[in-house]
Write a structure and sequence with these properties.
Layout (H helix, E strand, L loop, with lengths): L2 H7 L3 H6 L5 H10 L6 H10 L2 E6 L4 H17 L2 E6 L4 H4 L12 E5 L5 E5 L4 H11 L10 H18 L1 H16 L3
Parallel strand pairs: 1-2
Antiparallel strand pairs: 1-3, 3-4
Helix pairs in contact: 3-5, 3-8, 5-8, 5-9, 7-8
Organism: Siminovitchia sediminis
Protein name: Thioredoxin family protein
InterPro entries: Thioredoxin-like_sf
Length: 184
């Protein structure tokens, strides 16, 4: 299946947002509060590229809660079509975009009018990865009896930080901008 066909199979942003549950409040908070910087030259260049996005994401994913709203704001500003494919239902595509051999999301595949990949972004910025890795140090191995409790505490801290610290939003935007500036 080519990327145009994957795009056609995807959920609209509205359908995706309607299916949010666990991270709904945090997702909507970021979506409603993230403001794009004044980057008119970049926005115009991106409009000229006439890209669309196939996004692999899941509503339960904290990194998606952070990054999909940023993508949607950028897409709205640049008239870029977005379709979101739930990762777990689209492993055939996901397995073409593994991160270190794992199915880590979100993955944003930017495609041109012919359905050719122009750029790929995801799953997270280096600064976000460093933040999460620092919190993971307090989580024992999965076989440890205390794992579930410590993991839940870590996830709660991550979600709160993603919601409350606009630096995460800006870092994601800047990283996407860099990727898209280099796109064909």
């Amino acid at each position: 299946m080519n990327l145009n066909e994957w795009y056609e199979k995807g959920l609209t942003p509205e359908q995706y947002m309607d299916s949010l549950d666990y991270h709904k409040d945090n997702f909507l908070h970021i979506y409603e509060n993230f403001q794009l910087p004044a980057d008119d030259e970049f926005f115009n260049q991106l409009k000229e590229k006439n890209l669309r996005v196939v996004a692999l994401a899941e509503v339960w994913c904290g990194h998606c809660m952070l990054n999909v709203p940023v993508l949607l704001k950028l897409a709205e500003k640049t008239d870029m079509g977005v379709r979101i494919l739930p990762r777990d239902q689209h492993l055939e595509l996901m397995d073409q975009y593994l991160t270190n051999g794992k199915r880590v999301i979100p993955i944003f595949i930017f495609i041109d009018e012919n359905g050719e990949q122009a750029a790929k972004w995801g799953p997270i910025t280096e600064s976000t990865k460093a933040f999460v890795n620092e919190l993971k140090k307090d989580v024992p191995p999965k076989e440890d009896p205390g794992y579930d409790e410590k993991f839940k505490v870590m996830i709660k801290k991550v979600a709160e930080a993603f919601r409350e610290n606009p630096d995460f939003w800006s870092n994601s935007y800047e990283d996407m901008k860099k990727t898209l500036s280099d796109a064909k």
